[in-house]
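User: Here's a chain of 473 residues. Predict its fold as tokens.
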Amino acid sequence: MKQINCAFRSLSDIKGKKITVMGLGLNHGGEAAARFFLNHGATVTVTDMKTPEELAPAVKALQNDPEIDQSCLRFVLGGHEAEDFSRADVVIKNPGIKYEGNQFLAVAKAIETDISVFLALTKAPIIAVTGSKGKSTTVSAIHYGLCEAGFRAFLGGNITVSPLTFLEQTAPDTPVVLELSSWQLADLRGRGVLRPKIALITPIFPDHQNWYNGMEPYVADKRLIYADQTPDDWTICQANDPWGDLFAVETRARVIRYPSAAADVYLNDLLVPGAHARQNVQNAALVLSLRGVNPDEAARILSHWHGIPHRLEYFHTWTFTNPAGGLTAVWFYNDSAATVPEATAAASQAFGRPVHLLCGGTDKQLDFAPLADALAGQTPDAIPAASIHLLAGTGTDKLIPLLKNRGVAYNGPFASLDSLLASLQKNLTSQTSGNLEEIEEIVVFSPGATSFGMFKNEFDRGERFKIGATGAF
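Assistant: Prediction complete.
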């Protein structure tokens, strides 16, 4: 493949350029890109298929920024105009937009992403993390650990923080932790700008099959994380796993396999629940040790880490008098970032006891059998759920027959969060078991599917669940 050179060799190259930001979005990526190029003297057109009403928060944030020259900013919302792409010096593409068949990208002179521009211009050492699940937990734990160990570190990428927001603060002694989705990695193909000192790949499971139509092209994008590493770098991947075996053979970097290697860092009791969270934090401790942090110090630091929003995030306790006359305390956890069935299966087992599981949503052409098996207690050491409440969606339509075939009871599907929460409350308060001692119940909102149709995205879904549950209980 022909090498794709970055459109900018330095920050000074941006001044006077005509930039089109394709995809404003609501997760701050397009907003951050627009602000970055405006602040460096470019003229920026922001264009998105969504309407001004849908994008109102991001539009207002840019329009109300006193540091932006509004005369250099233009919005084209509710559709694209071909001239904004053909006349632009550079198009900054949102990673969720495909190249194939895109008439607007086809006429662009140069295409970049916020990640490609950042990597081309920064001198910081990169710690890059990809995989199917556990990415956000892992990068957040790594970043927390580095900062607590005394590093001036930065965190960005798929975790909804554009690295352009901190580009000018980076230096050769400021490690940057990047969470990279398969789409973000695909946008870097052929550019030669991603050369992480440490590349970590969390477990691989089927995901985004509605986009890729097969595991091989999905994993091919993941493999780009180590494509330009050297023998001086590190690749960390799963042991006893076919994909991990492929990664270990292909990479030119030094290889470390987990869980065996990561287990060498002994962790005290963690504040985040579940075996998968423990593995992610152990991998974070391994990365810290590769950056020179004493393993005992890394374990001490990470034992104080509280986790991150939307990943088994505790946020509320509701207490009521149960039918037996005792108190029942219900602990609520938000795991809305779980968008694959395997992640929800793990969440259902994370507490070592039955949980009230709220799940379901839109299908991504994924197999829901692993989740159904876990809920039926048909996987090793699996604990069946105390109750199951389903949100409506095409993914739920696939899950229901699997639950029926396994004899697993469920409630729903419900067309709204409000109706689901009402069902949950009825279930909790009508339980006749109990005593005069306090009983603890655990509620976990872990969809195992995407949020299209009912919510803007998984983060909106999680926030609305927290608001709804706090108000209803």
